[in-house]
Amino acid sequence: MTTYPTLSRRRRRRHASVRTLQEWLTEIGYQPGRIDGVFGRQVDAAVRKFQTAEGLKVDGVVGLKTWGKLKAAVTIQRRVPDQLVMMPEFSIVPRSVWGARQPKHTNPLLKNRPDIFIHHTAGPRPSIAGELGEARKHQDLHMDTKGWYDIAYSFIITPSGRILEGRGYGIRPGATRRENTTSYAIVFQGYFHPTVNEQPSEIALDACVWLIGQLKDGGWVRSDVNIWGHRNSRYARTACPGDHLYARLPDIRKAVNK
Description:
Elements lengths: L15 H12 L13 H13 L10 H21 L7 E2 L1 H4 L14 E8 L10 H15 L9 E3 L5 E3 L17 E6 L13 H16 L3 E9 L13 H4 L2 H8 L2
Parallel strand pairs: 1-4, 2-5, 2-6, 3-5
Antiparallel strand pairs: 3-4
Helix pairs in contact: 1-3, 6-8
C-alpha cells in the first residue's frame, strides 16, 4: 500500500508527493493552482478548504487523515462518471455511488404523501467536481454534529442536475419538523438568498420536475401533491429555500402539472 509523507508549506514544501497532492486537489475541484510540485499559498488555501469541507483539523498540514480523505474523495470522483455514463439524462444516483454512509436507523414512510418541501443547503454552490463531496459533508454535519440518523433529505439536487439519493423512497425524511410523516424533502445545493444571492440552475430545476414526476408515478406522493418551500411549513422559522429558489416554485408546479 502506498504511503504518503506529511506535507505543508513548512515541511517538505518541495517534494515529489506535492505534485500528487496538487493533481488530486485539482481533480476534486479545489483549485491549488499550477501543478509544479511546490507547496505554495494556493496549495495551502486549497488544503484548508478541503479540510474544512471534510470536518478535519484545519491546519494546512497534509498528514495521514487528510491523505485518507483525499484518496477517498478521488476514488469516488473517478468512479462516478463511469457509472453515470449509461444513465438517462435524469436518474437517481444511488447512495453507494456518491459515497454516503450507512444510516444509523430508518423509519418507513407511507405512500401517497400529500406534500413535498423544497430546501436549500444554504452553503456556497459547489463545483461539478465538488458536488459529491458537498453531499458527504452535509451528511456528516447531520449525523455527527446534529446527531440525526442520516442526512435529513429524501433527495439532493446538484447544480449540474444530478439527483442524489438521500433517505430515498419510502423512508421518512428529517428535514421539516413535525411534517416529516406527511412529506418528502428535496434539497438544492446552493445558497439562494441574500446576501449570497445565487440562482438555481435551469438544469437543477428540470431535474426537480423530473424527480417529482417519478414520485407521483410511483405512488409515493399524491397526484395532486402540494409543492412547498420549507418556509411554508407551519412549524418553520426560516427563509429556506431562499428568495431566489422560492420564486421559482410556481415554475416547478406548472411544469409538474403539465
